[in-house]
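Per your request, structure below.
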């Protein structure tokens, strides 16, 4: 059983002023084919306006699936808050060669929206709800060997400051360090809060089955030892309770040499932002992992210097299991 995760970065029929979908598929399809994934977790899949009716559709995804031979895979995707269809942008999608039994999404189902009172900017003194940017997609999959796989596909918020009314001089420029710091603080609450909601869901799975096969895959937008990863992992050295060791989620990239562990290059720094983490029970079936990062270029250089690049600046991560 091969599980892969890949942030395809705003898959759409067009990418703003960028290339057409055909140009993107020409480069993305070989990357996806190389993963040879039985279960593929995608992030940043945009929805398109329908040709008939009002509900948005995943037309760009369908074209990518056809080009990669995944048309027969079971499909699950995140939905808008009303549950009527996919979100306009940045959906998470799970494709599976094996049957998907059930699908849920976690979006403030276990953790309420935190409240924050502005201390800078024009809205100082006003309260705001810190809503997660997008849901976590939870699927139960009929894995080989008559086993049930609990798969969580996520895309956490990037470490970018949240808006503070009246505190910015431009799209990325701030009027004061204090206002930027408040926005960044709000962003970190969102990331940590969503990680907590996911951890609660994982613990709920373990409450029902201590030997459950659990996998978390996606774009965490942070490296190991950052707060969201620590919360999701639940390492025994943090709980100081050996009885909880069976609930630890283990990053499969630990099987690779340290200099191979990166999925993004940002401002010259190699960063491991995309992860596959598995329960101890699933780790018992683990065979190998890989990160297809040979062709990565610096994302900041790419966005600044390359016009209409069709690539994704994330590398796919693959994990192989023998069930």
């Amino acid at each position: 059983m091969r599980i892969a995760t890949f942030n395809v970065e705003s898959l759409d029929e067009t990418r703003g002023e960028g290339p057409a979908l055909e140009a993107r598929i020409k480069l993305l399809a070989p990357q996806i084919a190389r993963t040879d994934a039985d279960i593929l977790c995608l992030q940043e899949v945009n929805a398109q306006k329908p040709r008939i009716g009002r509900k948005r559709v995943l037309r760009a995804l369908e074209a990518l699936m056809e080009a990669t031979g995944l048309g027969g895979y079971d499909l699950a995707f995140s939905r808008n808050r009303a549950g009527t269809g996919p979100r306009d942008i940045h959906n998470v999608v799970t494709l599976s060669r094996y049957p998907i039994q059930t699908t849920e999404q976690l979006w403030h189902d276990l953790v309420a929206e935190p409240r924050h009172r502005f201390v800078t900017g024009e809205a100082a003194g006003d309260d705001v709800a810190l809503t997660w940017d997008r849901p976590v997609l939870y699927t139960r999959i009929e894995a080989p060997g008559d086993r049930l796989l609990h798969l969580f596909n996520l895309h956490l918020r990037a470490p970018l400051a949240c808006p503070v009314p009246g505190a910015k001089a431009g799209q990325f420029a701030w009027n004061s360090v204090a206002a930027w710091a408040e926005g960044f603080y709000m962003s970190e609450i969102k990331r940590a809060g969503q990680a907590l909601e996911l951890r609660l869901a994982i613990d709920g799975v373990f409450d029902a089955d201590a030997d459950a096969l659990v996998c978390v895959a996606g774009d965490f937008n942070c490296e190991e030892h950052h707060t969201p990863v620590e919360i999701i992992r639940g390492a025994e050295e943090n709980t100081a309770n050996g009885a909880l060791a069976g609930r630890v989620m283990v990053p499969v990239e630990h099987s690779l040499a340290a200099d191979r562990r990166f999925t993004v290059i940002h401002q010259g720094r190699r960063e491991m932002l995309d992860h596959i983490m598995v329960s101890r029970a699933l780790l018992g079936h683990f065979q190998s992992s890989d990160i297809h990062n040979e062709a990565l270029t610096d994302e900041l250089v790419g966005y600044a210097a390359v016009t209409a690049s069709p690539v994704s600046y994330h590398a796919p991560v693959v994990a192989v299991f023998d069930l």
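The chain is about 25% helix and 25% strand.

Regards,
D.
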